[in-house]
Write a structure and sequence with these properties.
Largest sheet: 9 strands, mixed
Helix content: 25-40%
CATH architecture of the largest domain: 3-Layer(aba) Sandwich
Pathway: Cell wall biogenesis; peptidoglycan biosynthesis
Catalytic activity: D-alanyl-D-alanine + UDP-N-acetyl-alpha-D-muramoyl-L-alanyl-gamma-D-glutamyl-meso-2,6-diaminopimelate + ATP = UDP-N-acetyl-alpha-D-muramoyl-L-alanyl-gamma-D-glutamyl-meso-2,6-diaminopimeloyl-D-alanyl-D-alanine + ADP + phosphate + H(+)
Enzyme class: ligase
Strand order of the largest sheet: 9-10-8-11-12-13-14-15-16
GO biological process, one term: peptidoglycan biosynthetic process
Structural class: alpha/beta
Strand content: 15-25%
Number of strands: 22
Oligomer: single chain
Family: Belongs to the MurCDEF family. MurF subfamily.
């Protein structure tokens, strides 16, 4: 039987609280969602923008929570016979738990940030480190002011490796998070024009991403994208922050880790590369040049963490793009099938260009077509229309045959597109649903992408409902 994540006494001391009721003596996990809570978990009643976790304490206790971590001011509103650890502020207590979890582990830690590719890189690190030891990594995109401390507080004391994703859309957000994580290795995948609603320039975004250097452990290593236009600035900021060692990755042979040759195929790539002076050949089980680029950062981090490079390279063949982030489904149609690339989770100019490039690399058997179904990219401020219109160039370069657009900013792109590429424009994604479902034909490759608020995901589900895949997770 495995050791508990926390004993009650450890939990109470770390959180800085007091016990009320018959709290469980052992805590198997930490949850902030009463719907997915497992018996024996501690339920943390966080107050968010829309919901207050205290409203779900009763449900969590009924589901078998070992205890609920609750705010003192809310105690009178909760079931009198409940099992509680009472604190002034549950979110602050979660941060304290995170700091205590970090202090008790000897794990080697890597933190990932960047404008694009954070979650994919984090998942690839999880996959490539597993052959070398026990890995703890954040689930989904738990990369914000509650996701990072929650992930840390969940880290077992005996983990060998920890993998953390750190996000931001305002200056100053990364610093307090990375100072909790205290990584030995920090990866910046790339810096691109995203969140321009909150930043006056791409250089300001680079400065915000460079906050990840503030929490590096003494002797820590920064891994930077040598091909990125902000590389020189990031290298300077790393040096200014006292980072003693910088490793680079990219297509240029001058990068410490670089590609020598790539062969692409429908479901992935075969790569010959040099990683910190070591030659390696490996396969990646997800399609797209961006996965190849980020694999260089991943394997560099594996080496810097002291893990096994050869085993890591073999593990990348098991990599799959997750739902909403490049997952490929084969949908049967009368007379054939279509390939559906689900990129619906989110979008910014850099990730949109990467997704369009993946679509361009996809083999098409004529009369099948490469079809881009794209919705507005959010948080781009005054530059939004210009950045949408500029997508006409990568669409042309990718050899895309048909474009469906949704959202007011996408109209700027619609105006730039050649008439032969225009299939349908709608003010919102829902307006594309009927026409898209009826228009697709055997041999088509369809890529769907847009910012989360544009709600492109239902278009993916509409196609899968109309043309159900035999195996809903089947990758091409």
């Amino acid at each position: 039987m495995s050791d508990p994540l926390w004993t009650l006494s450890e939990f109470v001391e770390a959180a800085g609280g007091r016990v009320k009721g018959e709290a469980g003596s052992e805590i198997g996990g930490i949850s902030i969602d009463s719907r997915t809570l497992q018996p024996g978990d501690a339920f943390v009643a966080i107050k968010g923008d829309r919901l207050d976790g205290h409203d779900y304490v009763a449900a969590a206790l009924e589901a078998g929570a070992a205890l609920a971590l609750v705010g003192e001011q809310k105690l009178s509103e909760l079931p009198a016979d409940g099992r509680y650890v009472v604190v002034p502020d549950p979110l602050d207590a979660l941060r304290k738990l995170a700091i205590a979890a970090r202090a008790r582990t000897n794990a080697r830690i890597v933190a990932v940030t960047g404008s694009v590719g954070k979650t994919g890189t984090k998942e690839a690190l999880r996959l490539t480190l597993e052959p070398s030891g026990k890995v703890h990594a954040s689930v989904a995109s738990f990369n914000n002011h509650w996701g990072v401390p929650l992930t840390l507080a969940r880290m077992p004391a005996d983990a060998d490796y920890g993998v953390f994703e750190i996000g931001m859309n305002h200056p100053g957000e990364i610093t307090p998070l990375v100072r909790m994580v205290r990584p030995h290795v920090a990866v910046i995948t790339t810096v691109q024009p995203v969140h321009l609603e909150f930043f006056e320039s791409v250089e300001k975004i680079a400065q915000a991403k460079a906050e990840i250097f503030d929490g590096l452990e003494p002797g820590g290593i920064a891994i930077l994208n040598r091909d990125n236009l902000q590389f020189d600035l990031l290298r300077f900021l790393a040096a200014t922050a006292g980072v003693p060692e910088i490793h680079t990755f990219g297509e240029t042979p001058s990068a410490d880790s670089h590609v020598r040759n790539v062969a692409s195929y429908p479901s992935g790539s075969s790569v010959d590369a040099v990683i910190l002076g070591q030659e390696i050949t490996y396969k990646i089980g997800a399609a797209g040049k961006h996965h190849v680029k980020n694999s260089l950062a991943v394997l560099t981090a594996v080496c810097d963490l002291g893990a096994d490079l050869a085993k890591a390279g073999l593990a990348l063949d098991e990599m799959r793009a997750p739902k909403g982030r490049g997952e490929v489904n084969r949908l049967p149609l009368k007379g054939g099938e279509l390939f559906l690339i689900d990129e619906s989770y989110n979008a910014n100019p850099a990730s949109m260009r990467a997704a369009l490039a993946v679509l361009g690399e996809a083999p098409v058997k004529r009369p099948g077509r490469r079809i881009a179904v794209i919705g507005d990219m959010r948080e781009l401020g005054a530059e939004a229309d210009r950045l949408h219109a500029q997508l006409a160039q990568p669409i042309g370069e990718a050899g895309i045959d048909a474009v469906y657009c949704a959202g007011p900013h996408m109209h700027a792109l619609w105006e730039e597109l050649p008439q032969k590429l225009r299939c349908h424009y709608a003010e919102d994604a829902k307006g594309l649903e009927d026409v898209l479902v009826s228009d697709v034909r055997p041999g088509d490759v369809v890529m769907i992408k847009g910012s989360l608020g544009t709600r492109m995901g239902p278009l993916v589900e509409a196609l899968k409902k109309e043309y159900p895949p035999a195996d809903d997770t089947a990758a091409a």
